[in-house]
Each structure stands twice: as C-alpha cells, then as structure tokens.
Design goal:
single chain; mainly alpha; Rossmann fold; Glutamyl-tRNA Synthetase, domain 3; 4 domains; 3-stranded antiparallel beta sheet; two-stranded parallel ribbon; 21 helices; 13 strands
C-alpha cells in the first residue's frame, strides 16, 4: 500500500510552528515514499471555530512550500476534506459501535456529572472520571432498560455517545518514536465520541476519517500520545487495521523549561507563527516569520532539525535533500529547544547563497527604494556577508543611498584627528578628479596619499569610514568608495571635514 499521511489542523486560530513542523514531517515522509500528503480540516469543535483561520493555515503552508496532494483547495478522491462536511459519516459509525455493545448513550446532565466527580473525590478516588466502574451508577443505556432509552431518544432528550472502555485490559502498540507503549484500561475513561450537538469528537472523527482516507501513518504531536490507546481500541472495535503511529517531541522554550508557547515567544521577542496573524477578538497583531524577514526555505530547514537528526554534520538542506534524507526512525524522543539565533543563522546562510541579482530583486519587491538595478545588485553583493535579513541591506547599508547626517561620536573622539583630516583632504582631491574607480584603484590611491609621509593606515582609515558612512564599522571600505563613485566620495569627505571639528 502506498504511504498516505495527513496533516489535520483545527481552524481555532493561527498555525503554531509546532504544527508547521508536524506538517513538514508528514510531507517529507510522503514525498520520500512516493506517497500522498493530505490536508484535512478538523472543524468539529464549532465553539472554538475562528473565522479566517482555515485560510490562514492553508496560506501559511503554501508559503512554507508544503503543498498537499489532496485537500480542501486541491480536492481529491477521498473528500470532503472538512470534517464539518462529513458529519453523516460519523453518526453511522457511532451507531455501529452502539449496536455491537462497544459504545452507549449517556443522558447525564452537567450537574449530574459534577455530582459524580464530587462523590469520587470524597471516596478518595485518585482519578475521578466516567469509567468502567462509575458508569454503572450513571444515567446511560447500560444502566437503563431498552424501553427507557428509546423513550428518551424519541422525546429528543439530549445525549452523548460514549465509548465503552474494556475493563482491566492492556493496550499495546508500537510507536515509531517511542517504541512499545503499554497502557492499562483502568487508567482510561469512557470518552465521548458524539457530542450533544450531533458533532463527533476528535477521537471518533479522526479514526473514521483516517480509515476512510486510507491513512497509513499518523504523525502528530506528543500531546496526543495519551489519546493513542483509545484510538488503538477504536480501530480494534471497528475491526480496522490501525496506522503506524509516530508522536513527535515537543518544541521547548529556549531554556528547555517547558513547551514553547506564544506567550514565551512574545516575552522573548520572536515570532511563533509563519505569517502575520491578527487576533479577530482582540485585534492584536502577531508578526510572522515571513514578515520578520525569514526565507521560507531557511525556515523549513531550521524547523526540520528541531526533533530530527540526519545522522551527519550537514546542516543546510534543500527541500529535495530533506526529502531524500528524512526518516521517522531518526526523530528524537526528547524535546527540542527552540533557538531563534539558530533560525537567524539559517537565514543568513540562505541569503549568502543567493546571487546578487536575486538579492536585488528581493529588495525591490520588499522596499520602495528607487535605485538602478545594476547598482542595487552591486550594493547587495557588498552587504550579503553581513546581513541576516534582506531589509538589513537598506537599514545597515543606508549610507549607500544617503549621505550620513550624523557621525559616530566614539569614532569622532578617537579617530577624527588633524592628521587624518589632512590626509582625507588630499585623498578627496586625488579621486575627485577621476570619473570612476575600482576597489583596487581606490586602495592604491589611498595608499599613495599615506605613503607620502609614511602615515600608518590605522591613523586615517577609521576617519575615512566615518566620513563616508557615519559609522565606525561596516563592509569593505574600498568597495564602498567604488560603489559611491569618486564625486560622491569626495563630496562626503569634504562635508565631514566641514561639519566635524578635530579634537587633536
């Protein structure tokens, strides 16, 4: 059977990067195996539905390059791909479990459920829940006659359908990441399968859908591991073969203490969503990785290594290389610390590997800068070793586009000397006569000026940089001179001399 995997987000808000990683791992396995990657929207919890969340999720995955073979937009032979459009499927399977004595109707009111929990707490039950023991004292089709049950159903009395958990039985399954998992049913409760509003819970819906969509591998977050024994039992109850499970490790805060959350990300000042997200209730804007300047390929590379180890020292992977190298067996059991500095490093590397023209095109697309494309390409090339984001070319390289209006005070105090001013004056006079100049020619002219009285390079170079850029550090100075041109270079030197007073 061909590998078929799904990513099944709930449209209850923005897509967290943990969800993006889950989608990525599913996608990588599908592509490596020549199988299918499916997106299914799990919108059974209508009370938590957020308008616009589904579109956001689909757009975010598209930006990441995670393109489904089947899904709400793509279509496919196993649709519909929204659970709200599959409602009729779930009731018939829930009814099947009831008819076979594997599930039951429960008519308990919220007040009666609260009373049950209080009774169990008073009896010092370690885990007060609706289970194989407590169900025998509750208002359900196990404790009631068939006639009573039918009367309640016919009268329209509200009910839920619960799974009848087997008594004192060991549930065993092998997880790709966790190896063998064994849980005794005495620790499990009779989970609700169908809610009183007629919608299925996640537990029933995802089992039915995964079966009908012929899903072979369920790759999901660690938070679903406690639910896995129930899901295994549901597969057995239906007489279906369960898929292969793989529960992914948590993404942890940078210090390793606890699960990475939006709150933690906000406090530490980094994004946690792939795209900008505006909370429809509060109007709060959360900046995304895209809008923060990250390249999708860098973002994917970074996320892929948060929980997966290729087994080599290689860190930079194209999507094609990730597909080739990926395996579920190399997913780590322990949580992965989220390191935003590492994310920045990946972005740096991907920008470095782009051509100057590519960087110029990106800059044109992201800014309103009105500069000749060839010149912009040259500027981008001079800055690419020093940037983390494409916007840094404009922000850190503002001096390419605008003459400095202020000058670094520390450099002025230390390096702007009478001696430096004399040499800069000579240099400006020399190059001001030329039409153009290469970095090599600029260096040669500068050294000629210094050599007249053997002035050390370090006595004048910082002052020259200060005059041209306003800063004490930056890209190669001779390259800057070549890009600015001879006239602009001479003009900036003379302006600095006019504005700044020598301190010694």
């Amino acid at each position: 059977m061909s590998v078929r995997v799904r990513f099944a987000p709930s449209p209850t808000g923005a897509l967290h990067i943990g969800g993006v990683r889950t989608a990525l791992y599913n996608y990588l396995l599908a592509k490596k195996s020549g199988g299918q990657f499916i997106i299914r929207i799990e919108d059974t919890d209508q009370s938590r539905y957020v308008e616009g969340a589904e579109d956001y999720i689909l757009n975010a995955l598209e930006w990441c390059g995670i393109v489904p073979d089947e899904g709400p937009k793509t279509g496919g032979d196993y649709g519909p791909y929204r659970q709200s459009d599959r409602k009729s499927f779930y009731k018939q399977y829930a009814d099947k479990l009831i008819s076979e004595g594997k599930a039951y109707y429960a008519f308990d009111t919220p007040e009666e459920l609260d009373e049950m929990r209080e009774r169990l707490k008073e009896a010092r039950m370690a885990n007060p829940q609706y289970n194989a023991i407590s169900r025998n004292q509750m208002k359900n089709s196990i404790t009631m006659s068939a006639e009573e049950v039918n009367q309640k159903l016919e009268s329209g009395e509200q009910y839920v359908i619960r799974f009848k958990m087997p008594k004192n039985d060991d549930v065993r399954f092998k997880d790709v990441v966790r190896d063998w998992v064994v849980v005794n049913t005495t620790t499990l409760d009779d989970k609700v399968l169908m809610k009183s509003d007629g919608m299925p819970t996640y537990h029933l819906a995802n089992i039915v859908d995964d079966h009908l969509m012929e899903i072979t591998h369920v790759i999901r977050g660690e938070e679903w591991l406690p639910s896995a024994p129930l899901h295994v039992l549901l597969y057995e109850a239906f007489g279906w073969q369960a898929p292969q499970f793989a529960h992914l490790p948590l993404l942890l805060k940078p210090d390793g203490n606890g699960k990475l959350s939006k709150r933690a990300a906000d406090q530490l000042g980094f994004p946690i969503f792939p795209l900008n997200w505006t909370d429809p209730e509060t109007g709060e804007l959360s900046k995304g990785f895209k809008e923060s300047g990250y390249l999708p390929e860098a973002f994917m590379n970074f996320l892929s290594l948060l929980g997966w180890n290729p087994g080599t020292e290689q860190e930079l992977f194209s999507m094609e290389e990730l597909i080739s190298e990926f395996s579920l067996e190399r997913i780590n059991k322990s949580g992965a610390k989220f390191d935003i500095e590492k994310a920045k490093w990946f972005n740096q590397q991907y920008l470095k590997n782009k051509s100057n023209d590519e960087l110029a095109q990106m800059l044109k697309a992201e800014t309103n800068i009105d500069v000749d494309f060839e010149l912009l390409s040259t500027i981008a090339g001079s800055m690419k070793e020093r940037i983390t984001f494409i916007s840094d070319i404009v922000e850190s390289g503002d001096f390419f586009f605008n003459a400095p209006q202020t000058y670094d005070e520390k450099t002025v105090n230390k390096k702007w000397t009478t001696e430096a001013v004399h040499k800069l004056t000579d240099f400006a006079n020399e190059i001001g006569q030329l039409e153009s100049i290469s970095p090599e020619e600029a260096k040669e002219k500068f050294m000629e000026v210094l050599s007249k009285d053997n002035t050390p390079l370090g006595k004048v170079m910082p002052a020259l940089r200060l005059a041209l850029t306003g800063a004490g550090g930056g890209p190669d100075l001779m390259e800057i001179i070549s890009i600015l041109g001879t006239k602009e270079t001479a003009s900036r030197i003379r302006k600095a001399i006019e504005v700044l007073k020598t301190s010694n």
